[in-house]
Amino acid sequence: PLRPTSSLPQSFLLKCLEQMRKVQADGTVLQERLCATHKLCHAEELVLLGHALGIPQPPLSSCSSQALQLTGCLRQLHSGLVLYQGLLQALAGITPELAPTLDMLQLDISDFALNIWQQMEELGLAQAVPPSQGTMPTFTSAFERRAGGVLVASNLQSFLELAYRALRCFAKP
Amino acid sequence: ECGRISLPTPTVHLGDPITASCIISPNCSHLDPESQILWKLGTELQPGKRQRRLADGRQESTITVPRLDSPWVLLSCCLRWGNSLQILDQAEVQAGYPPAAPHNLSCLMNLTTNSLICQWEPGPNNHLPTNFTLKSFKSRGNCQTQEDAIPDCVPNDGQNHCSIPRRHLQLYQSMGIWVQAENALGTSKSPQLCLVPMDVVKLEPPTLWALAPSPEVAAPQPGCLLFHWEPWKPSLYIEQKCELRHQPQLAEASWALVGPLLSQTLQYELCGLLPSTAYVLQMRCTRWPLPGQWSDWSPSLTLATAQR
């Protein structure tokens, strides 16, 4: 595994941090609109529903400060982004007003996942078979899609927050 | 149908010859089987044509115009009938040049429209209707390999810029881009650019405010000005550096430049100025340390320094 102060290109790490901030900004817009329009403002109010829907949360153990390990962190980050792409696709049809926000979030996550994957390929860290999205929850009503949107956005923010702190360590000159 | 002009091509190079033929059917010239076919170029009768009778009784006249010097001409096939000249058919002929290669292609990533806006110079007028198409493909590194094609971007008529929408872009990957020009006489291509959309992002300018003295904000020192500024909101996720320029409102004053100001420091005290003098302040920002384009200068903020 690469040393914590990695030999990853500085520009790659800076781009990753920028992309994370962009995805977080997109996610915040989605959360704000779900709150303003549908009064769904707190993920904590939807925990039971979240369990029932079975919304998966990707692991980031290699990005935690206790066990920080760059290769593993990059792989988990990439797999997590692929998972969130799937979750956002499952939310398609959330509401016409939110569709542009959801599209932008998907595009930015897809760009971010591609950026990481290509860098891993160039460093020979990429798995032979790219990770798949796995089974996705099914949102059977407009309310479930909106509630699912709140939960997915909230989980995504926490996911990115942890990954951001990890990559920031590697990005310090 | 009385007469029919046929042309090998309706478009020729300017200065080249053109040959046309006109066939008149017998039932049109029933009055005089040996009627003479005449040609007009624009309004002028043309000499030098050859006429012959075909096996089926139709008359055919062929003319060669030695040199077309006008980008557009009207060729008429006529028949003398009594004292009048009867026009039986007309054909438009265009003359021009193959398109020159478009040049000075440049692109900017616009975060307001979330699109990559590219512009180019079309090159000299070739006198012919010319279609420009912005072509691009996704790639890696220095664009030696083409990964996925991106749909052509067709500018509105007469415009020399085109916007590639966000859904066709991968903001952090290289893409190859060029402009193709095409008219009836040929096709040409601009040199290819290889760029990463976010590396050509152009931000909107920051916003500057005066900072009124308050319990939290001490009045500025003599010869100093205090102001507050904020980067353009949609670019808050982008690390950037900014620079300030200021100029006293005096005759023939010039701009002085201060920078870099990092986008985290949102309040700034500018010192070393003349007392009781009005100053015009402007700021601009660029993505940094990652590559980007400077924004335009912000609208001016005018502040006056205190008396000594």
UniProtKB/TrEMBL annotation, chain A:
PROSITE patterns: INTERLEUKIN_6. Monomer. Granulocyte/macrophage colony-stimulating factors are cytokines that act in hematopoiesis by controlling the production, differentiation, and function of 2 related white cell populations of the blood, the granulocytes and the monocytes-macrophages. This CSF induces granulocytes. The lineage of its organism: Eukaryota, Metazoa, Chordata, Craniata, Vertebrata. InterPro entries: 4_helix_cytokine-like_core (IPR009079), GCSF/MGF (IPR040117), IL-6/GCSF/MGF (IPR030474), IL6/GCSF/MGF_CS (IPR030473). Pfam families: GCSF (PF16647). The gene is CSF3. It is found in: Secreted. Belongs to the IL-6 superfamily. One of its GO terms (cellular component) is endocytic vesicle lumen. SUPFAM superfamilies: 4-helical cytokines (SSF47266). One of its GO terms (molecular function) is growth factor activity. Keywords: Cytokine, Disulfide bond, Glycoprotein, Growth factor, Secreted, Signal. This is Granulocyte colony-stimulating factor. GO terms for biological process: immune response; positive regulation of myeloid cell differentiation.
